[in-house]
From TrEMBL, chain A:
GO terms for molecular function: electron transfer activity. Residues 23-206 form the Electron transfer flavoprotein alpha/beta-subunit N-terminal domain. SMART domains: ETF. This is Electron transfer flavoprotein beta subunit. Pfam families: ETF (PF01012). It comes from Halorubrum vacuolatum (Natronobacterium vacuolatum). The lineage of its organism: Archaea, Methanobacteriati, Methanobacteriota, Stenosarchaea group, Halobacteria. CDD domains: ETF_beta (cd01714).
UniProtKB/TrEMBL annotation, chain B:
SUPFAM superfamilies: Adenine nucleotide alpha hydrolases-like (SSF52402), DHS-like NAD/FAD-binding domain (SSF52467). InterPro entries: DHS-like_NAD/FAD-binding_dom, ETF_a/b_N, ETF_a/FixB, ETF_asu_C, ETF_asu_C_CS, Rossmann-like_a/b/a_fold. GO terms for molecular function: electron transfer activity; flavin adenine dinucleotide binding. The keyword Cell division does not apply. This is Electron transfer flavoprotein alpha subunit apoprotein. GO terms for biological process: fatty acid beta-oxidation using acyl-CoA dehydrogenase. Residues 2-189 form the Electron transfer flavoprotein alpha/beta-subunit N-terminal domain. Keywords: Electron transport, FAD, Flavoprotein, Transport. Belongs to the ETF alpha-subunit/FixB family. It comes from the Archaea.
């Protein structure tokens, strides 16, 4: 069973987000890069399913040359192959991204690699458009279910679970299918040093993305850091000496005692 | 016309849908057009009575012989067909799992752009939307321009306090029967399995005691469990603590975990990364216990204790047990 894992490179923001002067993006000059935790689980799930059912796990991203770093993270986790749909670093919207991914899937099928399972994150870390997976599926005419936290493949059927209040909703869908996952579906492995070294020299398939957005558009104008109440906390004290004050607050200010 | 998707439980609209309806009504009034609602299943007329409070003109009750229970593509396709039938310019959905899933499908059916997690929308002379939406789980705002004959938007949760219309309406109920093909119905809920989780779910707890990497190990959570018990609350965790294998993922608070809204969140050994803090935006108050006076969480908390949680928490538990 061949599985495609779609991931997106994003800055690894810490305690505070700083924007560039033109307010167009996060100032990443002092930041590392990462991907959404959902997508780490996408890679892990792709590898586990490919291993369990015989086949290969293929990671794919649409992004700048630097996004090979995230692909290599996937390769170090033991994904078999990686593809970069290389952009000039400008941000692609969800519709063009989905179109580009669908086009590559078709291209690869023509070249003999067919995917039985396409895995994506439920939502990207930065943009959270909640739609690339659904749009890819519809364009390829595949069934799709989103927000999945448990997945089992039996023969040609995927049994997928989604959390709802008080339990889990179970879907049984025929493969090939598109499934978007949430963190918690598995525990992504840590890559060993040796695997990381090996991944550094693995070849990455590079392609030029072709994708269009369709009618109407959503265009970013600028970003803004929302105002937060950053008036420093009232320091109740140091160490256990603060305990009487805490009890007082729990009793009279929040009335939970 | 503005069309709002309403999720409901036996005719009672869900809170998030009423918030979306509140945004939809604002838009309808700015555009000087009707406010319609769409709902699947259940009893249309009972729901219509509820929706009159919120100024809905027409409720389109979607039904089809083969629609029995939730089916994402069929719902999205139906919603898209309804939009075309009644010529609605904009669809507003709640920012729920289903809301986003159905809206994404409707966006495909309509070949329309979709803007998620909107917190403010203004309409310009050309009919385009100048909107603000959440990014990074709400730690950033994006100002964006949404254009097109058909638009799909979701209303960010907790951003549109539910308000009744100035004048209540008596919505007309219209039955809408979409034309569905087998492919639209191939994904549907097969069954529901009840969870055997005990205790108060994180999202509903009045007190949450959070533990981060500073807790230091799985067993050290016992003292946090005890504190939570004494206060009738629940324990949560940061992603770092979960990655270290100290807690299950269900305990995670933040962008890719649970959103909490307790009266007080007691954050122990948590640094206050933005992705964690967006999960606690609903907390009424925050008390931080941290060894580092410079930790970001201290800026974001109402009260802070600078110190080792392993000394503070057991002493606090003793005091609470004594006062009980
Ligand atoms: C896209 C994305 C999504 C994410 N989603 C989430 C999410 O949903 N939830 C989440 O939590 N994180 C999330 N993260 C991770 C987040 O960025 C942080 O890495 C994480 O929250 C840090 O956890 P922490 O505060 O426990 O650990 P640290 O940052 O290591 O902080 C530990 C804190 O403990 C204090 N401390 C140490 N010892 C003691 C002691 N004895 N007593 C008291 N204090 C002590 C230290 O001073 C420090 O402040 C996400 C990251 C990304 C990139
Ligand atoms: N540039 C990209 N390259 C590859 N996959 C992507 C890209 N953008 C989004 N995705 C995938 O689509 C999912 C949903 O993204 P979104 O619709 O933006 O919330 C993400 O979690 C990724 O798995």
């Amino acid at each position: 069973m061949n599985v495609l894992a779609c991931i997106k490179r994003v800055p690894n923001t810490g305690a505070k987000i700083v924007l560039t002067d033109d307010n167009q993006r996060i100032d990443a000059s002092n930041l590392g890069f990462t991907m959404s935790p959902h997508e780490e689980c996408v890679i892990e799930e792709a590898i586990q399913q490919a291993d369990a059912h015989g086949g290969s796990a293929h990671v794919l991203t649409l992004g700048p040359e630097e996004a090979t770093e995230q692909l290599r993270t996937g390769l170090a986790m033991q994904a078999d192959e990686a593809s970069l749909l290389e952009t000039d670093g400008s941000e692609w919207g969800p519709r063009a991204t989905a179109d580009a991914i669908a086009n590559v899937v078709r291209e690869m099928a023509e070249d003999g690699t067919e995917f039985d399972l396409l895995l994506l994150g439920n939502e990207s870390a930065d943009a959270a458009n909640y739609q690339v997976g659904v749009r890819v599926a519809r364009e390829l005419g595949l069934p799709c279910v989103t927000g999945i936290k448990s997945l089992e493949v039996e023969g040609d059927t995927a049994i997928a679970g989604r959390e709802i209040a008080g339990g889990e909703e179970i879907y049984e869908i025929d493969l090939p299918a598109v499934i978007t996952v949430k963190e918690g579906i598995n525990e992504p492995r840590y890559a060993s040093m040796r695997a990381k070294m090996r991944a550094r020299n693995m070849e990455i398939d590079r392609r030029e993305p072709v994708g269009t957005a369709g009618a109407g558009s959503l265009e970013k104008v600028r970003l803004e850091t929302p105002e937060t109440d950053d008036s420093a906390a009232e320091i109740l004290g140091e160490g256990p000496e603060a305990v009487p004050e805490i009890v007082e607050i729990l009793e009279s200010e929040v009335s939970v005692v | 016309m503005i069309l709002a998707l309403v999720e409901h439980e036996r005719g009672l609209p869900a809170e998030a849908s009423l918030e979306a309806l509140t945004l939809a009504r604002e838009l309808a009034s700015v555009e000087g057009t009707d406010l319609d609602a769409a709902a699947f299943g259940g009893d249309g007329s009972a729901l219509a009575d509820e929706l009159g409070t919120y100024g809905v003109d027409t409720l389109h009750h979607v039904d089809h012989d083969d629609l029995d229970g939730y089916a994402p593509e069929a719902w999205g396709e139906s919603l898209g067909q309804l939009v075309e039938e009644i010529d609605a310019g904009t669809v507003v959905v709640p920012s729920t799992d289903r809301g986003h899933e159905v809206a994404a499908h409707a966006g495909v059916t309509l070949d329309a752009p979709m803007a998620t997690n909107c917190v403010a929308v203004e309409v310009d002379d050309a009919g385009a939307y100048e909107l603000e939406r959440h990014r990074w789980g709400g730690s950033l705002l994006e100002h964006a321009r949404l254009t097109g004959d058909r638009k799909v938007i979701s209303a960010a949760e907790h951003e549109f306090p539910v308000t009744p219309a100035d004048e209540a309406t008596a919505p007309t109920v219209t039955e809408f029967t979409p034309s569905l093909e087998a492919d639209h119905l191939r994904v549907r809920v097969d069954r529901v399995e009840a969870s055997d989780e005990e205790g108060i779910p994180l999202g509903e707890a009045r007190v949450v005691v959070g533990g981060g990497r500073g807790v230091g190990g799985a067993e050290e959570y016992d003292q946090l469990e005890e504190l939570a018990d004494l206060l009738g609350g629940t324990v949560g965790a940061s992603r770092a603590a979960i990655n270290d294998g100290w807690r299950p993922h269900d305990d995670q608070i933040g962008q890719t975990g649970a959103k909490i809204s307790p009266d007080i969140y007691i954050a122990c050994g948590i640094s206050g990364a933005v992705q964690h803090m967006v999960g606690c935006k609903g907390a009424e108050t925050i008390l931080a216990i941290n060894t580092d006076p410079e930790a970001a969480i201290i800026q974001k908390a109402d009260w802070a204790v600078v110190g080792d949680l392993h000394e503070v928490v057991p002493e606090l538990n003793d005091a609470l047990r004594d006062s009980a």
